[in-house]
Amino acid sequence: MKKFLLYTFILFGFAANAQDENSDENDTPPDGWSSEGKFQLLFNQSAFNAEWTGGGTSSMAGNLVLDYSLNYRKGNLTWDNKFLANYGLTKLKDDEFTRKTSDRLEINSILGKQMENSNWYYSFFTNFRTQFSKGYVYSQDQETGLPVRRETTHFISPAYLQFGPGMMWKKSEDFWFNLAPATARFIFVDPDFTSTPGYVDGSYYGVDTNKSSRFELGASVSSYFKYEVMTNVTMEHNLSLYSNYLDQPENIDIDYLLNLDMGINKYLSANLIFQAIYDDNIVGAFQVREVFGAGFTYTF
């Protein structure tokens, strides 16, 4: 985990240098509302006929991505809002079930009041994240040998809501980090998952038996970097860290998301998404996912 954090911050250092080289320090956004959005529909596909001897399984996959920002500025007051939605499915030939490759719904909001002649802001942030649809664990029935699945998650189970005051350093809308040393966090789950016979306290996202939520108080660090790697190639980094003062504060929750967008033309692009999550309330190891695809892009 320490090596992961070190490599991540080194990567952010390169991002910061790229931002500085390409930004104008006197380029202050005008007062009022501004918005920017992007919709992507990405595809992956592979096919093999019956005579193909090299091995392989035909498959199809699709991924929907929506990234929308709505920001407000008036004098030394800023209010930045970001909406992220990502959902993907894949289907392997002869597999009975269609499986998810991506499922994320997240809303971020940061209100800031700028200190005079400084990049520092007094801030208050809110973050909410959950998923759209049911998640499953797949296995085989021991008696019949048929594939089966067991539901483990669904919409608002889990869901995370965290908020708190802090200090934000903001170079631009594409380069900032926020420190919130008194962050309240709520974890919401469906009590059906915590009411099963033999349930052990805390085994489902840290929530106790017959409960539907868990309260935590801790410190939060969040950061965002966006820069152009080369012409028509843009990279985004989102990093969130959280330490719970009330229970094992040394175990830091990590949520890192990388989005690499490679424009082909106005409507076509390729996209790489990489995410790494560490949360010992779920599993004591990194959860990693990677999605790559090409398809349709619409910017608004």
TrEMBL record:
Keyword annotations: Signal
InterPro entries: DUF3078
Keyword Signal in record: yes
UniProt signal peptide: 1-18
Pfam families listed in its UniProt record: DUF3078
UniProt key word Signal: yes
Source domain of life: Bacteria
Name by which UniProt lists this protein: DUF3078 domain-containing protein
Species of provenance: Salinimicrobium profundisediminis
